[in-house]
Design brief:
This protein has helices at 42-53, 135-143, 151-167, 173-184, 212-215, 222-235, 249-255, 259-272, and strands spanning 18-22, 29-34, 63-68, 74-83, 87-95, 102-111, 116-118, 126-130, 191-193, 198-200. By secondary structure, it is an alpha+beta fold. Helix 1 (42-53) runs parallel beside helix 2 and helix 6 runs antiparallel to helix 8.
């Protein structure tokens, strides 16, 4: 007979090739990673973000930080690259300490009064730096003011002409219907009827086909059509994929809720108008 040990009698044995990431304030294990994993301190990420946001001339960019996740184990930083009273170009930075192991910088365009973010389908909209090597040096090099160009300049070069093009492109109700079908499928009927009864079909009333056509009925250009789609996703819809039940808007922004729909909408509008 082999005696069974109680939980508090188990001995901790190191596993070759792996290590645990532990929060210094709570000593809670966040994740188990390989020994090649290098931690990126939050202060390094914040400094890199500040350097990125200063590239267009803003010497003291506005920086904000927030923790999110079930145990507040994840951190999001936000900085403003440029802007005015209505709109701003911002960078979101995520320092994730999990198995995915990357610091990600994501460009988003924000409309202040509409509380809406525009996530464009651009190859230059984000930059990821894996958690390997000398992380501080890699972050400082990527965001260095001495660099001739970063993903921010490439993004603006790619998207500014497209915004101008869409602002001068006709938008019709036919485009609205086609875009809704492309993103969310055909609009389902609200009820079905058989010989014995009439019943409603689940959450069919939430389908964009019952909301966006009226919302966008007065829009005549493709740029404002895209803005309307994003505004509806952020403020009216569930803006999430199947299985995503996160209700906190800040956390959903950090996790990318609705981003795929916005990127697909941008690409469809650019390609089909």
């Amino acid at each position: 007979m082999v005696p069974i040990k109680r939980r508090d009698e188990w001995e901790a044995n190191p596993v070759p090739g792996y290590k645990a990431l532990v929060r210094p304030d709570t000593e809670q294990v966040i994740s188990v990673v390989t020994t090649s994993y290098s931690v990126a301190e939050n202060e390094w990420v914040a400094l890199a973000l500040q350097q990125f946001c200063s590239r267009l001339g803003e010497q003291n960019p506005m920086i904000a930080a927030a923790s999110f996740g079930r145990d507040a184990e994840r951190t999001m930083f936000a900085g403003r690259v440029s802007g005015n009273e209505e709109e701003a170009l911002c960078v979101l930075a995520y320092n994730t300490h999990g198995g995915e192991g990357a610091v990600c910088f994501q460009l988003v365009e924000v409309h202040r009064h509409q509380r809406t973010t525009f996530i464009l389908d651009s190859a230059h909209a984000s930059l990821s730096i894996a958690h390997v090597g000398r992380m501080r040096d890699r972050l400082m090099h990527a965001s260095s003011p001495d660099r001739d160009e970063t993903f921010i300049e490439r993004y603006l070069s790619d998207t500014k002409p497209l915004w101008h093009q869409l602002a001068n492109t006709l938008w019709t109700p036919r485009h609205t219907s086609a875009l809704i079908k492309k993103l969310w499928g055909s609009t389902p009927p609200l009820t079905w009827t058989d010989l014995s009864e009439q019943s409603s079909i689940g959450d069919a009333h939430r389908h964009p086909g019952y909301h966006l056509p009226d919302t966008m009925s007065q829009i005549s250009d493709a740029a404002n059509a895209y803005r309307a789609i994003c505004c509806w996703i952020d403020n009216e819809s569930e803006a999430c994929k199947r299985g995503d039940f996160t209700k906190d808007r800040d956390e959903r922004l950090a996790l990318g809720a609705g981003h795929t729909y916005k990127q697909r909408a941008w690409r469809w509008i650019v390609d089909n108008t």
